[in-house]
Amino acid sequence: MAQYCQGDECRYRPWFGPWPGRGPFSHLPPWQRPGWYLGRGWCWRYLYAYWRYPTTPVDPRSELEALEAYRSDLEEELKGVDARIRDLKELLSKESEKP
């Protein structure tokens, strides 16, 4: 609990509540609090900061090449999944043929 004094009288206030400055960082000066530097409510919404600058748009040719490579990788993965499904179906059909 944080203590504040008015004249000769000292009171305690809770560290929680919807009021500015009463959160877990109230012991820090405002310019050192996460909300001051990173924006309001940052410490509650995000687990990490976005330190990178926004990227420039990718030109269509390189995006097309990247997407084609991604599609070929997905097709290879799909072939592996289809092979596994085929193997499992064969295994189940052999088990059902046994008396």
Strand count, sense and barrel status of the largest sheet are: 2 strands, antiparallel
Compute the average pLDDT: 74
Which range best describes the helical content: under 10%, 10-25%, 25-40%, 40-55%, 55-70% or over 70%? 40-55%
Query: How many E-type strands?
Result: 2
Distance linking N and C termini: 75 Å
What do these coordinates show?
It is built from 3 helices and 2 strands, in the order ββααα. The chain has a domain of 44 residues. It has a two-stranded antiparallel sheet. With 99 residues, it is mainly α.
Question: Which helices and strands occur, and which strands form pairs?
Answer:
Layout: E1 2-6, E2 9-13, H1 34-38, H2 42-45, H3 60-97
Antiparallel strand pairs: 1-2
Summarize the structure.
With 99 residues, the chain is mostly helical. Helix content is 47%, strand content 10%. Strands 1-2 form a two-stranded antiparallel ribbon.
Summarize this structure as a short list of keywords or feature phrases.
99 residues
